[in-house]
What does this fold into?
Amino acid sequence: MHAPVRIVWMRGALSRPLLSAGILYLLAFPLTAQMLCPSAAWPVVLDISMLGIVPLLLLAGIVGALLALLPVLIGTAAMAELGRHNLGLQHPAMWALAGAATAAGICATLGTRPDEPPALALIFTGSACALLARQKIRWIEAER
It folds into this structure.
């Protein structure tokens, strides 16, 4: 019989993905739009006017945290518990796939096709947030 496994949630297991969700989506959206429709690409000029995006990123962080609260909380708790019972589900790649699948399920529920920029940006964000949460979860075998 195996020793019981204890789950340790390190500081930042929920706050890092929550605070990053909106910013990641906001940054991923133009990249996915350019990737899916390269003929509609627009030039990006890096100068002092780019500082105007800072307030937008702060607002995206707040709104994204509110929207991502339930998926991040439920997903992290579920994957941590599943990882306690199955060693393969502790691998970061499995967490990334679970985050992407959850986001794809949300897109399907909302009626968005996965080959559209908003959906693809959400799938990327779900995968990245799952990886951020996974970095702060540990499974430790309990001593007898």
